[in-house]
Specification:
Layout: H1 2-9, H2 21-24, H3 27-45, H4 56-66, H5 70-98, H6 106-127, H7 133-146, H8 152-159, H9 167-198
Amino acid sequence: MMSDFIKHLFPRVVLRKNLRISYTFCLGGLAFTALLALMLSGMLLLVYYQPTPERAFGSILFLESSVWGGRYLRSLHRLASHAALILIFLHTLRVVLTGAYQRPRHLNWLIGMLLLCLALFEAYAGYLLPMDQLAYWATQTGMELLLTLPLGAQLRTLLVPDGVGQPLSLLRFYALHAVIVPLFLMLLCMLHFYRVRKNKGVLPYL
C-alpha cells in the first residue's frame, strides 16, 4: 500500500491527454496538498500552543503578537483548513456527477466519504483549541446537537467528560485534533490512493 501511495504521488508515466485540467480538475491532489499544508503548519503551531484552559488563549495571543511569522502561520493553518474542506467536497461532487462511485470503485467511494466525515470532525475538534468565546459557544452548541443523535449522550461524555473548555475535555480535543484524527486521515489517504491504482481509476495505464 505504501508503494502504491508513493507511485500515485509520483507516477512513472502520465498520458498527455490526462494532463488536461478538466480531466479531474486536480481536486483530489489539491485536497491532499491542503492536508499536507495543514499538518506542516499544525506541527509548527504545536511549538507554542499550551493545551490548558488558563493558557490556551494566551498562547495564541503570544503567537500572533510576539512570534515572527506567527500571525501568518495561524492564518495559513486556518485558510488551509477551509480550502481542504471545500476541495474534498468538490472532489466528492465530481465523483457523484461522473458516476465514478459505481462498481468496481464503490469501496473507494466509501473510503472517500469517510475521509470527508473525518475532515469535518478534524475541523470541529480544532475549533475549540483557541479557547475564545466563539470557540467555546460553537463547541457548546455542537455538543448539545450531539445529544439529539443515538448514543449522543455517551459520545458527549466521551468528548467532554468535565464540560466544554475544561482541562480534560480540552486535552481530548487537542489529542484528537493534533494526533489521532490526522493519523487516520493519512492512513485513509494512503488506502484511497492504493484503491485508485488497484481499480485503475482514471489512469488506465497504471
